[in-house]
Specification:
- Helices cover 32% and strands 30% of the residues.
- It has five helices and 17 strands.
- The strands form four sheets. Strands 1, 2, 4, 5, 6, 10, 14 and 17 form an eight-stranded antiparallel β-sheet that branches. The chain has a five-stranded antiparallel β-sheet with strand order 3-7-15-12-13, with no helix packed on it.
């Protein structure tokens, strides 16, 4: 499932994150690359324990935790601490060739392991401010070219081959991280997400047609029960 979540960061939060990371000391992006991706990766990255990275990470954590669409789509069991990268245009064009993310990421500071069921990119630059830099994800429906508004998040299966196209003008700032989901299978997460969205829509319709204190319809109650029974069947917690 490839899912766009709009406006994860509010404008003031986006401005804070950008201010924090733009003034920080960037390093070679290969510091977190695996054996395959290291040969095709050319960008900059903030070291994980840099104070600016920690402060910006906290802002992203808070935004993710309050976003119901993120929680519903990811069903997170564990989240690798968000990282930040920078792709610059000009003579030293930055890019990241085709690769697949490591199946398991280990956080250096805590030795915590995270299985990368879902890969995430949170865009931090106005798409009009840079040329190129599309995130290209290969899935069963072909290549998806992604260049979202600043503050928007994309989630996609960690099993996907993907790349970042060369940035030829300006610079592309982004936050990226991985999620170990309570539900490992992408098809099952998709079914649960669609069902939860439908239940939410029906619940809003019920509220619009009746007094706020009225009980939910029997159909919504049954569907909600089906959702939780499927989650109970599939979840690993």
């Amino acid at each position: 499932m490839l899912l766009r979540i709009p406006q994860v960061l509010a404008p003031e939060e986006l401005a804070q994150v950008r201010q924090l990371i733009l003034g920080a000391d960037w390093a070679d992006g290969r510091i977190t690359a695996g054996s395959q991706s290291g040969g095709v990766k050319k960008n900059l990255q903030l070291p994980e324990e840099l104070p600016a990275a920690l402060q910006a990470r906290h802002l992203v954590w808070v935004a993710l935790a309050r976003n119901p669409m993120f929680v519903t789509g990811a069903l997170p069991r564990s989240v690798y601490p968000p990282l930040f990268n920078r792709y610059c245009g000009g003579a030293d064009t930055h890019h990241f060739g085709n690769h697949i993310d490591n199946a398991v990421r280990t956080h250096a500071a805590t030795a915590r392991h995270v299985r990368t069921d879902i890969s995430c990119t949170l865009f931090l630059s106005d798409p009009a401010s840079y040329d190129g830099g599309e995130l290209v994800v290969q899935d069963t429906y072909g290549e998806q070219r992604i260049k979202f508004e600043a503050g928007d998040l994309v989630m996609y299966p960690g099993t996907s081959v993907h790349r970042v196209e060369p940035v030829t003008r300006g610079e592309r700032l982004a936050c990226f991280f991985w999620i170990e989901s309570m539900v490992r299978a992408d098809a099952q997460r998709r079914l649960l997400y669609d069902m939860d969205m439908a239940i939410t829509s029906l619940r809003h319709q019920d509220l619009a047609q009746s007094a706020p204190t009225s009980a939910e319809s029997s159909e919504v109650i049954k569907l909600t029960g089906c959702y939780h029974n499927l989650l109970r069947m599939w979840a690993d917690v």
